[in-house]
Structures are given as structure tokens and as C-alpha cells.
Amino acid sequence: MILEVFPSGPIETNGYLLGCSESGVAAVIDAPFDSFEPITKRAKKLGLKITHLLLTHSHWDHIGQASDFKEKLGCLVWIHEADAPNLINPGADRLPLYGEQKGVVPDRFLVDGEEFHIGSLKVKVIHTPGHTPGCICFYIASEKTVLSGDTLFCGGIGRLDLPTGQPKLMRASLEKLFLLPPDTQVYPGHGEPTTIESEIGAD
Ligand SMILES: [Zn+2]
Ligand SMILES: [Zn+2]
After folding, report:
1. Which long-range contacts link 190-196 to residues 24+ away (Cβ below 8 Å)?
2. Ligand 1 mean position to 45 CA, how many Å?
3. pLDDT digit string (tens) for 130-180?
4. Which of 43, 103, 160, 171 is the most buried (most CB within 10 A)?
């Protein structure tokens, strides 16, 4: 597995390049502003072909360049259905927008518990509503890795006070993540990586 982070845009949102070293197939997880160029350049250098854009949720800072990945690379764009409205029509979530933002129609809705492959990497979808209704995490068991979006950070959890927040659902979502093996590496939507073990009990 190749996993590289690209903190990008006005609030340092992490876009990730996830590649299968065997097949050369890759996915991008989240598409912050100013991430398209560095990610695509790096993928080219590594000989990776980006086929998918996987979105942890649809807040503006995570979808800023989704349209570039779709239109310029022909990526399939996958998201949870509950977060699709703000991807299709940015601003629908009542958060302020950062400049002009193009909507993107997703190619498929991801559901809790489903698994798919990026090359030979098996990725499992964990639905973790709370920060937004359609927040999802991407779990790669074989690599002891989870991409946690804005649900779980190093030393904290995602904001629940935004218009998209569902504070009552967050506890159960965190408990789902805390069931993963303690040594699972956590790669969040902002900030440094951490492990499940270090964050257990976070609230
Ligand atoms: Zn967010
Ligand atoms: Zn964010």
C-alpha cells in the first residue's frame, strides 16, 4: 500500500493518495482546494493511475476540487447518500462557501459495511454519522489503517455544532471505530495521524 497525505487549502484539509503497489491503481480520499495538482503530479511520479475519488463527507473543504478529479481524470466519485446533496449543490448544507465551487454528481452511493477493491486493497466502508449525516470512514484491515475524515482526529473528534451536526449519533459512531484493533493507524481529515489505542475514550 502507498498512502501519502496532502494537507491543502485554507484550513489544511488532508487529501490522501491511496495506491495499490501491486497493480498501480489508486484512489484519492477527499479533494481539498489546491490538492489536485500536487496529488496528480505525485501519482504520475509513482506510476499510479487514479481511478476513484472517495469522499469521507461533503463539507466544502473536502470537496473543493472534486470536479477536477471527475472532469480532468474521469474519476468515479463515491460518497454516502446522506452527504450527496452538498456535493451536487455546494452550499446546500448551509455552511458558508469558500469562493466558487462546482457541484459534482456522484457515480455511486457507499453504504455501511460494504467492501470494494482499489487494486488488490480491500476497503471497507464504516458509516459514522455525527459530524455530518453521511460521514464515512475507509478501513483497510490488511494494512491496519483507517481514514477517519472529520469523525476522529489526533486528540479529538469532529465538530458537532455545525448545521450538519448530529451530536446524538456521534457517540455510537466513535464506539464503532473503537472496536477496530487498537494498533490501527488513524489518518484523519485534518492534522497528524494517530492510533485507535491513543484515541479510545475521546469525546
Ligand atoms: Zn467536516
Ligand atoms: Zn474538514
Report:
1. 190/7, 190/11, 190/12, 190/13, 190/14, 190/150, 190/153, 191/12, 191/14, 191/153, 191/154, 192/154, 193/5, 193/154, 194/152, 194/153, 194/154, 194/155, 196/146
2. 30
3. 999 999 999 999 999 999 999 999 999 999 999 999 999 999 999 999 999
4. 43
CA torsion, ordered 203, 31, 162, 199, to nearest 10 deg: 0
| Rounded distance from Cα 151 to ligand 1 centre (Å) | 8
Q: Are 69 and 54 in contact (CB under 8 A)?
A: no
Nearest ligand, measured from the Cα of 158: 1
CB atoms within 10 A of CB 179: 8
The SS3 of residue 201 is coil
3 state DSSP class of 2: strand
All three cell numbers of 65, joined, read 476540487
- Give me the residues paired with residue 3 across strands: 18
